[in-house]
Amino acid sequence: MRNNENEIPNRFDPIHVIGKNIIDTTLSPISNILCPVCKKPGIPVKNVTVRHIVKKEQMERVGKGDYHLCMDPECDVAYYDENSTIFDKENIRVPLWFKKDANPKYACYCSRITENEVIKAVLEQGLHDMGTIREFYDKGAKCQCKVRNPTGNCCSKVFNAAICKGIELKK
Ligand SMILES: [Zn+2]
């Protein structure tokens, strides 16, 4: 089935697909402190977000400061701070969608909806917007991005990029 080209939203330009990973470079400013392991810049993340994302047994190490999230798909580091405190992928409760081996790959952390589920909703249910797709999987879903999304930012850009992927597949 081919969709009318005009129906495809074009407001998702800031999304960049690096390899197979959707990375939104407009989420946050880039940190000036580099990841101690891969030496690449991450994005700033508030302490409150990190506290909710790390595993219980790691909580003590979090302290009071803010963190940075390593955005390199190949690097095992999740959060780091300027004192080189590191929480790697194994230290946190959810897989980071942009890391190379993320499984499952969440598009929405609030409702725990995977990228594949979003694509499926587009292909099989003909749903094309975030609100309807969230409602389909999680009735009465609430936005809790600040404590559920590992970036502390809204899931919508990555979610919308997954919708676009589904629309592309449908063509
Ligand atoms: Zn890194």
TrEMBL record:
Gene3D superfamilies: 2.20.25.270, BFD-like [2Fe-2S]-binding domain. Residues 34-93 form the CopZ zinc binding domain. This is (2Fe-2S)-binding protein. It comes from Methanolobus mangrovi. The lineage of its organism: Archaea, Methanobacteriati, Methanobacteriota, Stenosarchaea group, Methanomicrobia.
